[in-house]
Structures are given as structure tokens and as C-alpha cells.
Design a protein that fits this description.
It is a single chain. The two termini are 16 Å apart. The chain folds into two domains: 80 residues, no CATH class; 323 residues, Methylamine Dehydrogenase, Chain H (7 Propeller), CATH 2.130.10.10. Helices cover 8% and strands 39% of the residues. The longest helix is centred in the first third of the chain and has 14 residues. By secondary structure, it is mainly β. A hairpin with a 4-residue loop joins strand 27 and strand 28. It comes from Billgrantia ethanolica.
């Protein structure tokens, strides 16, 4: 099954050649063909696998051969967006699961108390669950047009998702399958985006294009909204500090946002350099805010007590577009989404040193990691690759003195 949405990205002047029209007709049914420019190019066999993660063409072998021949000829492997790996002493293991329904843009995995891993399929209104011990997966249909952007497991054991296109927050009861939707109280609030539960059970969330922060009380169903003080700041990632303060990143401006959990007053922390945009952030045990400077290719640190701000250049440079971020294993982890492969990067705050690994998607490196979180025991990192419909888990294997390559365990291909 493949997505049936069309995404009107900027046009790409595809080279002439046999198979071009077939490629455009099949692939543009789901996404703009200009996405091909974001890849590093692949061999015939690699294109074959990559397409198999997006759409099923085995029942149309002639069409499949035509598309693969065109792609392999005109978009072979290249280093046009090559990453700059950073060597180091640690070894990691990647575990992967390819989700059942293709073309869904699977993303934002989160662990439930029973050890299951949940995700959302943004383009096809899907909520999914993996049993990582057996590899068994289930998928559940969400209301048409919800376009879920993220999912969290609430204190009540339910899966709460953000209805990014139908202006709702949603609750899925795993026991009954019942779905409850909580619509936004303001028509200007169009796109719930990323959410986190506070210790008191309140669910906080961002609305990127609406330029708002929201809160939902699951006990009453009441939704309240607050607008960012800077127009076009586009609140994106969101985390909650130990003292209850809500922090959000600005994907449209050089700022972080601090939200008072009682009054919902939103204040801005301006970041130093124009061109800075922040996809996501996380908070360490000392209350330090770590954030990715997506616009300038850096990792940032903000101390709320002193106001001190520091930044470090990411290994792959200013066009690396850091995206997801998580504090894990005594370090700060993020990815470089603007290069190929999509690199998982570890930053050691004490040594101020980097190490990075290419994120696999089966036998190829493709897709983008957009959000990552740790498992509940803090022993693993949950990741994904949206472009290839893979959900993943990362563990650190050892800390020897010799740099080592990652090991890969495919749970489902």
C-alpha cells in the first residue's frame, strides 16, 4: 500500500530518458520528484530495495524495471551530499523494523511501560505498535485526515497523538480501540505538532504553523492555547524541565521559548546569530537546554540560570541540518539530516568531542530521523527513518579505545 497524497514541492527538471514518464507518474503520486535531489544516488539493486520500502511494484514487473533502469542510469551513487564522519571509541548496535504498510512515513517511536514501541504513520493516518521481543506489529486506523505527527504514552496507558492536519489531539485506548478527539478551541490553531506529558498529567504541545503552544487537561478535556511573542517563530520541539517549566524550540527564528506552566505566559530567549533555526531540544539532569541549530549546522547549549549560550560546529558542517536530539548515555545525541547518509552524532560534553555513525535503512542509507527519545529505562535510543518506513533502536555496546563500525540487526525486511 502506498500513500495517495501529492506533495507540491518545487519542480525538478528530470533528465530525458527511457522510463522518465513512468517514474514521474508512479512516484509523484506520493511525493514531489524533486526529493530525488536529496538522495546520494544508488545502484540498481539499492534503488530496488529503496522503492520496496515505499510502494509495492512486484505485480507490475515491467513498470518496476523501467523505473529502476531510469534511476540507476541517471541517479547513480555520488558524493554530492556526503557526510563527514567523526571517529571515536564507542560501538553501537542498530536494530530495525520495517513497518507493514508502505508509504506511511512512519515516525516518532515511543516506548510504553509494557515494553512495546508505538509509532505514527503520518501520511496514512496510522498508529502502530511493535513488540520488540517478537517483532510482531499491529497497525490501527486513525480518523481520516488526522495526519498524526507524533505520539506519546500517557499516565493512563493510552496512546495520545497529535492530529497535525485536522486540528485535534487524539487519544487511542489500547484496550478497547476507542478513539477520542479533542478539537482546538480556536480556528487559528490548525496543526498540533509535538507533545509531552508533564509530571502532573497535563499534555503540552506545539502548533508550528499556528505559532502557538497548547495544553490539554486529560481529566476535563479542556484545551488552552498561548501564542508565541515572536511572529513566525514556529514552535516545533518541546520538552518539560524538572521544575515543570515548558521549553519549546523555534523552527522559524533564532529563539527558544519558555512557558510558565501555571500562567501559560510565553517568553523568548533570543539566540545570538541570524540564520539560526531550532528544530528540537532536550534537557539534561542539570537543567541545561541542549538544542540543534538546524539553520547553521551546529549544536547549542543554553544555561537557564546564567544565560550562557555556547555552540559547536557539527562534524558535517553548516549544511548538515541537525534535526532530532536526545540526552542519552551521558552525552548529547542528534542527527545530521542534510547529508547522506543521515548521521547519528554523539557529543561528549566533558571532552567536547564528536563521534558519528551512518543510520541504516536496511541495506541502504536513506530517509530522515525527525524525532528521537530514550527507552523508559534509559538503556536505548529510539529512532526512525521516515523515507524508508523503518523504526529503530540504538544501544551502546562498549567503550573501548579502538574506533569500531556499527553492527546492524534487521528485525524485519
Amino acid at each position: 500500500m502506498a500513500a495517495v497524497l501529492y506533495h507540491p514541492y518545487a519542480a525538478l527538471a528530470l533528465p530525458e530518458g527511457e522510463g522518465r514518464e513512468t517514474f514521474e507518474a508512479v512516484c509523484a503520486a506520493c511525493h514531489g520528484v524533486n526529493l530525488i535531489e536529496r538522495s546520494s544516488g544508488y545502484t540498481h539493486e539499492e534503488w530496488d530495495f529503496l522503492i520496496s520500502t515505499m510502494i509495492e511494484l512486484s505485480d507490475a514487473p515491467a513498470r518496476q524495471d523501467e523505473i529502476l533502469g531510469y534511476l540507476a542510469e541517471h541517479f547513480p551513487p555520488s558524493d554530492n551530499r556526503a557526510a563527514t564522519p567523526a571517529d571515536g571509541p564507542l560501538s553501537v548496535q542498530f536494530e530495525e523494523w520495517k513497518v507493514p504498510t508502505l508509504g506511511q512515513r512512519s515516525r516518532d517511536p515511543v516506548e510504553a511501560p509494557d515494553g512495546s514501541i508505538w509509532w505514527v504513520g503520518q501520511w496514512l493516518d496510522i498508529l502502530g505498535r511493535i513488540d520488540p521481543e517478537t517483532g510482531e506489529m499491529e497497525e490501527f486506523e486513525l480518523p481520516p485526515g488526522a495526519r498524526p505527527h507524533s505520539v506519546n504514552i500517557g499516565p493512563d496507558g493510552a496512546a495520545w497523538y497529535t492530529g497535525n492536519r485536522n486540528a485535534t489531539m487524539g487519544r487511542f485506548d489500547p484496550q478497547t480501540g476507542e478513539i477520542t478527539e479533542y478539537p482546538m478551541p480556536d480556528e487559528a490553531a490548525r496543526d498540533p505538532h509535538t507533545a509531552e506529558f508533564a509530571e502532573n498529567g497535563i499534555l503540552w504541545f506545539t502548533l508550528q504553523q499556528s505559532n502557538m503552544i497548547g495544553r490539554l487537561d486529560p481529566e476535563t478535556g479542556e484545551v488552552q492555547l498561548a501564542t508565541s511573542p515572536r511572529e513566525g517563530s514556529r514552535p516545533y520541539g518541546l520538552k518539560i524541565a524538572a521544575d515543570g517549566t515548558v521549553w519549546a524550540s523555534c523552527n522559524g527564528a533564532n529563539c527558544l521559548l519558555r512557558v510558565d506552566p501555571e500562567s501559560m505566559e510565553v517568553s523568548e530567549i533570543a539566540l545570538p546569530e541570524a540564520g539560526t533555526t531550532v528544530r528540537r531540544l532536550d534537557i539534561d539532569e542539570d537543567g541545561i537546554i541542549w538544542w540543534v541549530n538546524s539553520g547553521l549546522g551546529r549544536l547549542g547549549r543554553y544555561d537557564p540560570d546564567s544565560g550562557d549560550i555556547q555552540e559547536w560546529d557539527s562534524p558535517s558542517g553548516p549544511d548538515s541540518h541537525p534535526y532530532a536530539i536526545a540526552v542519552f548515555d551521558g552525552a548529547v545525541w542528534y542527527n545530521e539530516s542534510g547529508v547522506r547518509p543521515d548521521m547519528l552524532v554523539r557529543f561528549d560534553p566533558e571532552a567536547e568531542s564528536f563521534q558519528s555513525w551512518p543510520i541504516p535503512s536496511g541495506p541502504v542509507h536513506a530517509g530522515i530521523l525527525r524525532h528521537m527519545r530514550t527507552t523508559l529505562d534509559g538503556e536505548a535510543l529510539l529512532i526512525h527513518q521516515t523515507g524508508t518506513n523503518h523504526i529503530g533502536r540504538v544501544t551502546v555496546e562498549n567503550s573501548g579505545s579502538t574506533p569500531s563500525r556499527p553492527s546492524i540487526r534487521n528485525q524485519r525486511d
